Amino acid sequence: MKIAVLPGDGIGPEIVAQAVRVLEVLRTEGLKIEIEAAPLGGAAYDQYGAPYPEFTRKICRAADAVLLGAVGGPQYDTLDRPLRPERGLLGIRKDLGLFANLRPAVLFPELANGSTLKPEVISGLDIMIIRDLTGDIHFGEPRGMRTNDRGEREAFNTMIYTEPEIRRIAHVAFGIAMKRDKKLCSVDKANVLEVSEFWKEIFTDVAREYPQVQLSHMYVDNAAMQLVRNPKQFDVMVTTNLFGDILSDEASMLTGSIGMLASASLNESKKGLYEPSHGSAPDIAGKNVANPLATILSVAMMMRYTFNNIEAADRIENAVKKVLEKGFRTGDIFEPGMQKLSCSGMGNQVVAALG
Ligand SMILES: NC(=O)C1=CN([C@@H]2O[C@H](COP(=O)(O)OP(=O)(O)OC[C@H]3O[C@@H](n4cnc5c(N)ncnc54)[C@H](O)[C@@H]3O)[C@@H](O)[C@H]2O)C=CC1
Ligand SMILES: CC(C)CC(=O)C(=O)O
Ligand SMILES: [Mg+2]
């Protein structure tokens, strides 16, 4: 298992350090794990003058899987756009063809009482959010700023999807729905956007190849509302890059915290990049208080999706469950009566629970 580790910026190095400890436990027990570290984002800009430098690209291309923390920070916000940390993240996603982003919003029952939502609304929650990751307004050209005919400055981005891009994410979504409850909700804004209308047309066409799957369509504004009103109506949701970015952050709060939401970004060959769904959290960086569980659960996804090592994946997820059962919490999921831990303290507990 050749794993590239990219700690990134902000809390990235802190949370990744805990996830690497989990990998080290597996290695000590006999899994052949090779780890190579490289910078991405702001850290890469500082070292190499580019957010996704050749050094990192080579290591990631040679690896079977990539473990990433997060990128970005206010100190980089004034850089020219192509040099910003976030472009490094878009760059690696595009370079490795990581078009299928899986974000499982699963509630550990131990966290049901601490949620801002009523336990009956969220108990048993298990939604798979599938987001296209290499198309949409994030990548569409042209993009930029200009002065229009009236002499006013304006900025523009292009929302665009090709038919093959929609078809391939549709097949991933239907395939996953087939393995679950055979219910797929495609989220769009087809009442306004041509891109969404096309998306809906292609999904309806692909659905003919999966007659056992019940396909529904929902506008994104309604989906955002339904996610907090009655999230358990969803089993698998699939949507575009921008809508998926927003809906998955929203869904993370159904599981207790953005610090709980793992993710896998896969390409056609199951090479994967695994990262928490959150960002670099500059407000808490360097304080050793971030929740490392989303990153640790991303390692479980790596074992499941890239290495097909279901036993290791289950073990990591069970270790997280055990730690939560014992009442250990980081600040973001803390509730009275529980024991508050630091980021590394949570890592210690997960490592102990793996044993
Ligand atoms: N995948 C990535 O690398 C992503 C990077 N970003 C970048 O991260 C930077 C900060 O972005 P924000 O909008 O503030 O989003 P963010 O996700 O970094 O933080 C939002 C809020 O959630 C909290 N939070 C996030 N992760 C946490 C964790 N593991 N434990 C406890 N609390 C946690 C933060 O403290 C903050 O209050 C920006 O530069 C942004 O572009 C944002 C999202 C994804
Ligand atoms: C910073 C963005 C490029 C990434 C993001 O918000 C995400 O992948 O969820
Ligand atoms: Mg996001």
TrEMBL record:
Keyword Transcription: no
Places the protein is found: Cytoplasm
GO cellular component, one term: cytosol
EC numbers, comma separated: 1.1.1.85
PROSITE patterns: IDH_IMDH
Binding site for NAD(+): 73-86, 279-291
Cofactor comment: Binds 1 Mg(2+) or Mn(2+) ion per subunit.
Reactions mediated catalytically: (2R,3S)-3-isopropylmalate + NAD(+) = 4-methyl-2-oxopentanoate + CO2 + NADH
Pathway given in the UniProt record: Amino-acid biosynthesis; L-leucine biosynthesis; L-leucine from 3-methyl-2-oxobutanoate: step 3/4
Residue ranges occupied by any Isopropylmalate dehydrogenase-like domain in the UniProt entry: 2-350
Entry protein name: 3-isopropylmalate dehydrogenase
Species for this entry: Glaciimonas soli
